[in-house]
Each structure stands twice: as C-alpha cells, then as structure tokens.
Amino acid sequence: MAGDLRFLDSLKGKRVLLTFHSLGDVDGVAAAFALKHYFGKDRAAVVPVDRVSSLTRNLLGHTGFSFDYPSSSALRPEAYDALVVLDCNSRMLMGKFADARAYAVIDHHSAHTDPLDSANRFVNPSYSSTCEIVYEYLRERQKRKKLDSRIALLLAAGIALDSANFKNSREKTFTYMGELLSQAHTEYGDLLELLDMPRTVSQRIAILGACQRARIERARTGDFLVATSRVNSNEADGAEALLSLGADVAFVGYAGDDARISARTRLHLAHRLRLTEIMARAGKLLGGSGGGHPCAAGSTGPKKSKLPAALALCSKLALQRLEQ
Ligand SMILES: [Mn+2]
After folding, report:
1. What is the pLDDT of residues 236-246, one digit of tens each?
2. What are the backbone angles phi and psi of residue 110, rounded to the nearest 5°?
3. Which of 69, 132, 169, 309 is the most buried (most CB within 10 A)?
4. Helix or strand or coil: residue 254?
5. Which domain covers residue 244, as residue numbers?
6. What angle do CA 86, 158, 78 make, to 5 degrees?
7. Number of separate domains in the chain
8. How far away, in angstroms, is 31 Cα from ligand 1 center?
9. Model pTM score
10. 220 C-alpha vs ligand 1 centroid, how far in Å?
11. Burial 230-245 (b: 16+ CB within 10 A, else e)
12. Whose CA is closest to 66, among 99, 112, 33, 103?
C-alpha cells in the first residue's frame, strides 16, 4: 500500500506544512506530528486550522509536542514548499486552507461532495483512521527503525479513537496497534486510561438535554427506532448517548455560528442507512456539506434556519431506508 503514498517520498527534508480538519482531533493531529518527524522536524511544521479538541490538547501536553503556529492566521504559507492535508477531504472543513492548492490530501473519511484541490490524493474509508494510513506508510519506509516512542503513542491513540475501539477495523489494524504499543512502551489498558477524559458538567447537561428533547420514531417494519434531537453544544456526545440508550439511528442538531448535525448508527445497519449520503443531503439543505464514516457522520452549513427541516429530512430518509 505504501506505494499508493509514494508521492510523499519526495517531501523528505522539504519545508512541508501539515494540517488537518477544523476542530482537529487526535487522529489528524497525531498523523501530522508523525509525518513532521519523518520529513524532518526542523523544516516541516504542523498548524491547526482553528482550535483542537480538549483531548488532543491533553495528549499533546502529555507527549510534549506543540504546534509550530498557534493557528493558521499566524502562518506565512510562502515559507513552505508543500501543504499536506490530513484526516480531511472537504473544503468546508478547512477554514483558511479551503482554497489552497494542497500537494496531498490523505484521509480515511468517505469522499465529501466539496473536494479540496490537490495534486495527490489518498482517500480510503477502509482504513480505521488517518493514523493507520500514515503508520502503514512509515513502517514500510522506515523498515526496522523504531518510531519515537511519543509518536508511536500518538498514532496508537489516533487508531484507538477513530476505530471506536476497533469497531471499525481490519485485521491489520490490530497488528499495527500491537507494534505501536510496543514502540510506545505502553499497554493498551494504560492507553485507554490516558484517553478516558471525565465528562464535564456541560457535556453531561448536553447529553441529558439531548435525551430530554429527543423525538423517537419507530419504523413501520422491523423494530427500528430513529431519534432526533437538538442541543446547545456537544451534538456528537448527544448522538452517541441516544444510541447507547437504545436508538438505532440518532441525529442531533446544533445551531451556533453555523448549523451542524451529528449522526450515529450501529455497525450492522451502516450499509442499509448510508449515513454519509444522508449527511451529504442534509448538509446541502444547510447550505454546506456532509460526510463522514458509515457509523458516525456529520453535516454542517451556514443556514441555521434550515436546521429543523434538515433534521426532519434525516429521520425521513433513515425511516425509508430501514423500512425497505
Ligand atoms: Mn480521523
């Protein structure tokens, strides 16, 4: 497979700028730091589009890495030879980089309807995570040379999180995790403990609010339940909570600076539901786009007033597909 990423080979020693989607998560950030170390940590740089998740900040603190620029606004793009976008293939999610010409886009999400302009592209949803793609490349290129233990820990964290603890995994994912844990000198249990962030009170309020306001619809055939709800923050946590409480599909909306919907479903319903396609249609209604994973997808757009209609569209499409 590393052959598919051979376009990265020429970047060694170059001034490479590495970035990832808006509201960066561990997977994108870890993949970026791993490649920065491989290309040459004095010349390559990592910059977030905007802020990153609190878990990501925790892990960076733990491993001692920091961004070369605090945000893309502090950046001088002319100082770099190539832009590499990780864990994202959507213009909508790239903020200031939306119109940049990237040297490469590397992602494990399904292809969005608003692709980034790039000379090279590796977008393959059969991988659990961008960290898995990047590790597969590095292990072939580095042969027996071990990774920096902190880089190995970050990559392992990215795989654990984006595979949803191996729910979205292939056999190879387990092999890679074993190799990474050994290079990180860490046991899996200790990794999970490191990634287990206690919920804040605002998260708990959002989750309970999502349950309180949930609208439950039952499919006319089968025993399927579709839940839709709205929250004032943490829509992804809300959707996950509804699923864990018994919904088969959950759509949770949020309207702040923009409108967002977070969607979740169970693995065995993923093919039937085609959640990423539902999110693409909802995203269009919101004036933006949508996509993601078969079991965890999202849409976002500027038209906040369309959020109720977009949520209604989501539940209608989900019910239709479950009743087929
Ligand atoms: Mn990812």
Report:
1. 999 999 999 99
2. -65, 155
3. 132
4. strand
5. 202-323
6. 25
7. 2
8. 9
9. 0.76
10. 35
11. bbeebbbbbbbbbbee
12. 33
How many other CB atoms sit within 10 Å of the CB of residue 256? 10
CA of 248 to the centre of ligand 1 (A): 23
Do 18 and 94 fall into the same domain? yes
Residue 28 belongs to domain with CATH number: 3.90.1640.10
Q: How far apart are the CA of 97 and the centre of ligand 1, in A?
A: 18
Give the residue from 195, 212, 233 where a domain finishes. 195
Give the containing element (helix H, strand E) for 45: strand 45-46
> Which token pair is 48?
């977030």
Rounded Cα distance, 23 and 93, in Å = 9
Long-range residue pairs from 3-12, CB within 8 A, at least 24 positions apart, any chain: 4/122, 5/106, 5/122, 5/133, 5/137, 7/103, 7/104, 7/119, 7/120, 8/35, 8/84, 8/104, 8/137, 9/141, 11/39, 11/44, 11/81, 11/82, 11/84, 11/103, 12/38, 12/39, 12/40
Per-residue DSSP letter, 219: -
CA of 287 to the centre of ligand 1 (A): 24
- Summarised one tens digit per residue, pLDDT across range 154-191 is 999 999 999 988 988 999 999 999 999 999 999 999 99
From the CA of 322, how far away is ligand 1's center (Å)? 27
Nearest to 31 by CA among 125, 142, 107, 123: 107
Per-residue pLDDT of the chain (324 residues; tens, 9 = 90+): 656 999 999 999 999 999 999 878 999 999 999 999 999 999 999 999 888 888 999 999 999 999 998 777 778 777 899 999 999 998 878 888 888 999 999 999 888 888 999 999 999 999 999 999 999 999 999 887 999 999 999 999 999 999 988 988 999 999 999 999 999 999 999 999 999 988 889 889 999 999 999 999 999 998 999 999 999 999 999 999 999 999 999 999 999 999 999 999 987 788 789 999 999 999 999 999 998 777 788 999 999 999 999 999 999 999 999 998
The CA 19 to ligand 1 mean position distance, Å, reads: 13
3-state secondary structure of 290: strand
